[in-house]
Design brief:
Layout (H helix, E strand, L loop, with lengths): L8 E5 L4 E5 L11 H22 L4 H19 L6 H4 L11 H20 L7 H12 L37 H13 L7 H15 L6 H15 L11 H6 L1 H14 L2 H37 L7 H13 L2 E2 L1 H8 L3 H13 L4 E2 L9 E2 L1 H4 L4
Antiparallel strand pairs: 1-2, 3-5, 4-5
Helix pairs in contact: 1-11, 2-4, 4-5, 4-8, 6-7, 7-8, 7-11, 10-11, 13-14
């Protein structure tokens, strides 16, 4: 299949509307557009540099947790969820009631991401893995009764109050299983010579076009990209997440997806996708460099002034890399120290300008590792 000659599908008459029946993608893809080759080479190079960089950072998994929190916040924001990264680091009981539903959705995304990546060691990228991720995503949320863990058995649509004024109507539910089976086969087909990043871009487009679940398709479709890059060996650590790029270019993101369906412009979508890989890899490398610089400044310069408290202070800073918004009770529970010791350490970190107290209260104070947190905003 030549990308420039790709026909995305056709609209099929249902009872009172037309749904889109996409062309299957399990094929050997070629292209003549030289710009795709240039972007693909650069994207491979940048992604390789990001992965190599992540492998040389001590305790990288601690910092990956913050990348996942950022991805969950941005991916959910595309869908209209309004939760800030600081809130994802708190317990549900600490979130204002009117913001708790949004917080739950983002927290579920973090859980679904972390568990799915662990499962890749035993389960290949598959419809089974995506269904299990979807179940985690929907738990306790507004969509929990909309057939979690199963592909839809009814029609859904995008945009519009009803199917009659919808901006896009995905394939009828009776086509979903066959289309998702074709997509899974495409990701695993070792008889075709299609680069991993091209497969990832086509797979994300196809997943969003199929829209196999009643709810949560955007988030699962974006998670699919990272899961596939890890499962294929392109990433050793899950250090690349594209939702920040998609969220910043939201109109282009949706326009490029829609233009494949409407105008068969798959080449343009692939180029947009590869630019996202390049930009996100660059940002990821810059973030890791900034983390190392900040880490060195704090651990080699600031903490060394604490004398006998140094050992405990090092344990606290390691905790703050994972949870950069804390209370004295958090520190007490994590470090297994007394409350006076926890408060004393927090005061030391505040005096060293590592932490900022955010509430202005005398009780239930909250401390933020602002300089570090800002690296993920």
């Amino acid at each position: 299949m030549k990308i420039e000659e790709f026909k995305s599908g056709e609209y099929t008459r249902q009872y009172q509307y037309k749904s889109f029946s996409p062309t299957k993608v399990n094929d050997s893809w070629t292209w003549e557009d030289g710009r795709i080759n240039t972007l693909l080479a650069e994207a491979n190079r940048k992604l390789g540099a990001l992965d190599a960089f992540s492998l040389h950072i001590p305790d990288i998994d601690i910092f990956i947790e913050m990348h996942v929190a950022k991805e969950a916040t941005k991916s959910s924001k595309i869908e209209g969820t309004q939760t800030e990264i600081e809130e994802t680091l708190k317990k549900g009981s600490e979130i204002a009631p009117e913001r708790r539903d949004d917080w739950q959705e983002v927290s579920n995304y973090i859980k679904a991401t972390n568990i799915s990546i662990k499962k890749l060691k035993n389960i290949p990228i598959s419809t089974r893995l995506l269904k299990e991720a979807h179940q985690l995503l929907m738990q306790g949320t507004r969509g929990e009764h909309r057939n979690p863990v199963e592909f839809r058995v009814s029609q859904n649509w995008i945009g519009g109050a009803t199917v009659d004024d919808a901006a896009y109507i995905p394939p009828v539910h009776t086509e979903v299983n066959e289309l998702m089976g074709d997509l899974e086969s495409f990701l695993h087909n070792d008889q075709i010579d299609v680069p991993v990043l091209i497969r990832a871009g086509i797979a994300h487009y196809q997943f969003e076009t199929i829209h196999p679940f009643l709810d949560g398709n955007g988030r699962i479709g974006r998670l699919l990209i990272t899961l596939y890059l890890v499962s294929s060996g392109m990433l050793t650590k899950p250090s690349l997440y594209l939702s920040d790029y998609f969220e910043r270019n939201r109109t282009l993101y949706y326009d490029n997806l829609n233009n494949v369906r409407k105008l068969n412009q798959l080449a343009q979508w692939i180029k947009f996708f590869l630019v996202g890989i390049i930009e996100t890899s660059n940002k990821g490398i810059d973030t890791f460099k900034s983390i190392l610089k900040l880490k060195e400044e704090i651990e080699d310069n600031k903490l060394t002034t604490l004398g006998k408290k140094l050992t405990t202070a090092k344990r606290l800073i390691k905790y703050l890399y994972r949870k950069p918004v804390v209370t004295a009770q958090d520190v007490l529970n994590e470090l297994k120290v007394s409350l006076p010791t926890a408060n004393s350490l927090l005061s030391d970190f505040e005096n060293l300008k590592i932490l900022n107290e955010k509430t202005g209260w005398k009780r239930n104070r909250e401390f933020e590792f602002t300089e570090y947190l800002n690296l993920f905003k």
